[in-house]
Design goal:
This protein has about 525 residues and is of the alpha/beta class. It is about 30% helix and about 25% strand. Helix 3 crosses helix 7.
Length: about 525
């Protein structure tokens, strides 16, 4: 990381827009209250000089920033230029790593009459092309010609993120001459503005269509987690709903976001940003766990910036031993539950006495205003989790059959199994589709057995599944030492003796290599 001197981004094209107050008035009149645009422009009115985004520019060897005042003028300029080029009402695909130009194109689409489609830059050419065709993309914005060579799609135009400064200059000229019609028309709460690809509950390629109001449902949650003077570190990929969630959460609070350059820079970034709360996926939380393991309390806290008090884990639940280790360093780790079809958020953590808090074993409390229920609960209250409310999506893009597999009369059938307590805290026990039915007809939830296995110190990762009609487990130990593995097998046999006959794990596969993961760090169950 750099010397950490600050320089405002795109200084040659930062707006000296002569009629900024008029721009604000025009824009605010074009956004209904429950739109992300409303909150961005509200922040610009309240604290125009506050940094909206910071990031390290290796070419300049310094941290660059953009203020909220600069952000709205650049959104207006880029939006005006996109309108001039004919992309009003069109879908714009963004293919690249997290960067300020990526965010600027994303927000210009959300604040105008356009639809943003973030895509994973690591997808191969065929997968990218298939997604672009399916969503009828009119414009593809990418980082390099190498990416463009993979996505030759008839009817779509191309731009690079490096074109951002030139487009801002052109858009600013339009604004000064009052020739741009951005945003021009009312941006309504019900307007579709975002598509995000997800495997959903049934696998396959599906693009969830999200509305403006979906992006603001967590506004009160984020205001509890971050105040407007906080600075947070954005580590999620922006093609994932968790990354988009963090992005909109900081905009709702008017706080500052530092854009992470990746895992290699994470420790240096932590010591610069010094966040009080980190928002991570399981793979990132596991990395910090490994960094802390063996450190003294003082050394460990210093390595993580010295100010860290909580980690919000998005995705798969973490083993209890991880939570216990972080607690030794004064860091509370909580898990939250969400899915792309609900714009990411269903539950949230609490803040008590200035610290992050959640009930042990839960994935947080149901967000205010959402209706979460348990379908056909058993004697323990466990059943399928159902969701209804402002965050529920419209459906999958031009895929009515897949939509019907999850959405009925505005209610999402998640396929996740869990239960609620009397205070509306939610507990996840597994996936409906993962249930193993024993030869005697009993239901076995593999995630419950995985929780038991994770209590063993030498088990780093594990996966319980059905194999040849029996319960099997694949375990990552991190070692190929035969004696160590034999001792572990002894511990596994002792756990087996405490289990009912139908739950006993009959086959164990020990591995010195990590298990296969999804892009968000979840262990793959299908391979």
């Amino acid at each position: 990381m750099p010397k950490f001197c600050l320089s405002e981004a795109f200084s040659d094209s930062c707006m000296e827009y002569a009629d900024a107050e008029n721009l604000l008035l025009q824009a605010c009149n074009c956004f209904e209250h429950e739109t992300i645009s409303h909150y961005i422009f509200e922040n610009a009115i309240r604290h125009p000089e506050r940094h909206a985004y910071e990031w390290y520019d290796p070419g300049m060897d310094q941290v660059e920033f953009i203020t909220y005042g600069g952000l709205i003028t650049q959104i207006a300029a880029l939006g005006s230029e996109l309108y001039r080029l004919g992309f009003k009402g069109k879908t714009i695909a963004l293919i690249g790593k997290a960067s300020y130009p990526w965010i600027l194109f994303f927000l210009a689409a959300l604040c105008g009459d356009m639809v943003a489609l973030p895509l994973d830059p690591d997808l191969d050419g065929e997968a990218l092309a298939k997604r672009l065709r399916h969503c009828r993309v009119s414009l593809v914005v990418t980082e390099s010609e190498n990416t463009l060579s993979k996505v030759e799609i008839e009817g779509s135009q191309r731009l690079y993120f490096k074109d951002t400064s030139q487009m801002l200059r052109s858009g600013n000229t339009l604004l000064r001459a009052h020739r741009g019609d951005w945003p021009g028309t009312l941006i309504r709460e019900k307007k579709p503005c975002l598509m995000v690809f997800t495997s959903g509950t049934g696998g396959g390629m599906k693009a969830a269509v999200l509305r403006q109001e979906n992006l603001t449902v967590e506004r009160y949650v984020w205001r509890d987690l971050l105040n407007s003077k906080d600075k947070s570190l954005l580590t999620y990929p922006l093609n994932h709903i968790a990354g988009i969630g963090h992005l909109r959460g900081t905009l709702l609070t008017g706080s500052t976001t530092f854009l992470s350059g990746g895992l290699r820079e994470l420790l240096a970034e932590l010591n610069y940003v010094r966040p009080a709360i980190l928002f991570l996926v399981p793979a990132q939380t596991t990395l910090l766990y490994e960094i802390l393991n063996g450190c003294t309390v003082e050394e460990g806290r210093k390595r993580l910036g010295g100010n860290l008090k909580g980690i919000v884990n998005k995705g798969a639940p973490l083993p209890e031993k991880m939570r216990e280790l972080f607690a030794l360093y004064g860091i509370e780790v909580v898990s939250e539950y969400g899915l792309t079809e609900c714009c990411g958020g269903v539950t949230a953590s609490c803040v008590r006495d200035g610290r992050l808090w959640s009930k042990p074993g839960s994935v947080g409390v149901v967000i205010e205003g959402l209706d979460v229920s348990i379908d056909c609960p058993d004697e323990c209250g466990i059943g399928e989790i159902m969701i209804m409310g402002q965050n529920v999506f419209d459906g999958y893009f031009e895929d009515e059959s897949q939509t019907r597999t999850i959405l009925y009369d505005g209610v999402i059938h998640t396929g996740d199994l869990g239960y609620l307590d009397e205070e509306r805290f939610l507990y996840i026990v597994g996936r409906k589709k993962n249930i193993i039915i024993s030869a005697s007809g009993e239901n076995i939830i593999p995630e419950e057995l995985e929780t038991e296995l994770y209590r063993i110190p030498r088990v780093k990762e594990c996966l319980v599944y059905e194999k040849d009609g029996e319960v099997a487990a694949r375990i990552y130990t991190g070692t190929a030492d035969a004696m160590e593995n034999e001792r572990l097998k002894g511990v596994l046999r002792s756990i087996n003796r405490s289990l009912p006959v139908y739950k006993k794990i009959k086959q164990f596969e020990l591995s010195s290599e990590p298990l296969l993961k999804t892009g968000s760090g979840k262990i793959r169950r299908n391979g």
